[in-house]
Amino acid sequence: MAPAPAAPSEMISGPDLGGGYLHQLSIDRLGEATTFTHHAQDGAEDAGGPPIGDLAPLGFVHPPAPCMFGGPRCWHRRFLLPFAAASRVRTAYQRHRFVLETILRQVHQGAPVAVDAALREVVGRLRGPLEAEGIPWYVAGSTSVRLLGGPARPRDLDLGTVRDGVERIGELLREYLIEPVAPTDRPDGRLVLGGRAFVGRPGDGARVEWAVPLEPRPPLPLEEFAPVPSVTRTVEVAFEEVAVRVSRPEYALLRAAARRSAPAVDAAVTATGQVGVDVELLDTLLGRSPLPTAERASLRARVVPPGR
Per-residue pLDDT for 7 more than 70? Predict the structure, then answer.
């Protein structure tokens, strides 16, 4: 996302407290182009702090220049939406700060994550409407490994869908949103259309995330979070007697190997054994992996029978 417009910034909520941080929501207007920014700074004793941990795992970044609201160490999340969306942006911002302490405990202290309860709620809300409207969606990430029989311990719930599905999922999970469905920039610089929710009660729930890339490029072959149908490879599993599509475990296997998480690799290997390896998918992902050649060969040998 380009730098925020060079127009006067207006604070539309705050200062507010939550999770040991001092929060403010601002808006920068330049004609019809509007950038909403969620600011968060260490609130110290004034916010019941210090905070449990930083906000980097939640997609927040430090701006390149000192922030007029939070100073040089202010954390930012930005959303590009029309001014008419101010009410729903503010609603998501308020829920975010209410549940932030729970999220930080889950991220930084290993507090329990109510993934099964969140998944039950998500499936119950999404399955009927999205199927009726012909919008593909699926469970991805470590939760897919768990559903396929691997001993994974998901820290959140990732969903895959197409562009139309991003907006529709936001509507169906509206009361749980902690970020509006909007074009937003990720810490790696990618521009995506996405949303985030915290499904459950403020003290007991799970983060849910979904997004599609907005860069003007065709999807990679067999990409996991492609913005168009029939690119991601999925399988169908039963979750509490309901059929749910999940992304194949080879995706999670390569991610776990890249971050050097042996337990997550073991869980994905187990899931791959349960469903059977997709050699074409695995070799495609290995070919794009930055892992050293020897590590890629070792990983392949764990899940592909000799001679294949």
Answer: no
Token couple for 124: 């119950």
State whether residue 15 is helix, strand or coil: strand
Tokens 């991220």 label which residue?
107
CA-CA distance, 26 to 274, in Å (whole number)? 49
* Structure tokens that stand for 9 in this block: 């910034």
- Angle at Cα 151 formed by Cα 209 and Cα 257, nearest 5°? 70
Give domain 115-303's CATH architecture.
2-Layer Sandwich (3.30)
Assign 179 to helix, strand or coil.
strand
132 by Cβ neighbours in 10 Å (0-12 / 13-18 / 19+) ranks as: exposed
Best-predicted range by mean pLDDT (199-203, 206-210, 223-227): 206-210
CATH 3.30.460 residue window(s) in the chain: 115-303
- Which pTM does this prediction carry? 0.92
The tokens for 186 are 């990720």
